[in-house]
Write a structure and sequence with these properties.
Helix content is 62%, strand content 5%. The chain is mostly helical. A hairpin with a 2-residue loop joins strand 1 (128-131) and strand 2 (134-137). Helix 1 (15-42) packs antiparallel against helix 3. The protein starts with 14 loop residues before the first helix and ends with a helix.
Length: 156
Amino acid sequence: MAHPLVDAQPPQKHESENHGSLVRITLTVFIALCILTCASLLTYTDFWQERVPLTVGRAVMMAVSITKAFLVSTFFMHLWWEARWKYVVTLPAMCVSTLLCLALVPDIGKRTVHYDNARWLNAAEPMPYSVGDHVRVAQPARGSTIESAESSSAGH
């Protein structure tokens, strides 16, 4: 049995022959995007946040977002029917952007290690985050506290 998403061809000389299958594909993708949007909105409800851990909710949101991006780029940007050269353009860009994101993770995660007292004074308040059943607050760099920074700047 032919699958409408896999076996569909772009319109060529006889546009009326393939028009029905392309409309069916477009409507199928549109309905899938609507369902995925509802799934992503579900993660913001109190029902979801009370019953599902934060990390699972974030993983679901990422999976839904990636799926939606795949559907839009594949079908609405017509990449499904493009020649194989699309991989020559997209794969290097995808690899470079992934490596850039991975290279920045240590810098972002340890950005407060070298904060001095003045920087802690002007930095935004630390946000609490949860690790398992414990709620923690981001701490100042080693040997530096917000209180000591406030007292040293008061003397200036």
